[in-house]
Amino acid sequence: MSNIHDAMQNLFCKLKATYQAQQREPKVMYEPDWPSEIYQGDPDKNGEIVWRPHTRSVPARMDNIADSLESVIPEQLSEYYGGYYSANIAAKTQRGELELLLPWNEEDFERLQKNLVAHILMKRKLRQAETWFFAVTDQDDFNLAVLGNTGEVVLERVGCEPQEVIAHSLSDFILTCEPVII
After folding, report:
1. Where are the domains of the chain?
2. Order of all β-strands in the sheet with 89-93
3. Which of 40, 47, 112, 138 is most buried (CB neighbours < 10 A)?
4. Signed CA dihedral, 172, 17, 107, 162: sign only
């Protein structure tokens, strides 16, 4: 099992190379009311701005939601969400296409935590294994999540038990992702 920081840096290098191979820059619509450390430079005439993933100087922790849920958040998931600001990253694996969900800024990080709490509460209500989502797939109603008690990456239909173990860890899974331009 590799560490999440190395896996993410590898992913960011592959993302940069993917855009460079097509002589492009990753761009998003500039939102002045939704600031982020990922913005690079000024918006162009179409209102788009170049972005780059940003490694937080002090990683955020998710202990607050772990404590409130009386649960343990897989360490790699906490490092994944708390270590970076980024636009979501489209990628593919041998299994299909997906979008890695990452916080845009601190406000988005807080909103993401609320969504994770709601997800865990739903899983408990349904008496299902606790999972922590981190990506959506190209298959309707399926997402990728980290299984709380093992740290394995699983494929699950929303509202259902995990269907299949995809990787032994989040970092191992991220190492299989190849960024794509959409």
Report:
1. 4-179
2. 162-167, 153-157, 142-147, 131-137, 96-100, 89-93, 178-179
3. 112
4. negative
135 burial level (CB within 10 Å; 0-12, 13-18, 19+): buried
Per-residue model confidence (pLDDT) at position 2: 62
Please state, in angstroms and rounded to a whole number, the distance separating the CA atoms of residues 52 and 133. Answer: 23
Contacts 24+ apart (CB under 8 A), 21-25: 22/181, 24/181, 25/50
Q: Residues 32-59: pLDDT tens digits?
A: 999 999 999 999 999 999 999 999 999 9
Q: Which amino acid is at 173?
A: F
The CATH H-level superfamily of 4-179 is Syd protein (3.40.1580.20)
Contacts 24+ apart (CB under 8 A), 56-65: 56/82, 56/83, 56/84, 56/85, 59/83, 60/106, 60/109, 62/113, 62/116, 64/113, 65/113, 65/116, 65/117
Number of Cβ within 10 Å of residue 10's Cβ equals 15
Whole-model pTM: value is 0.94
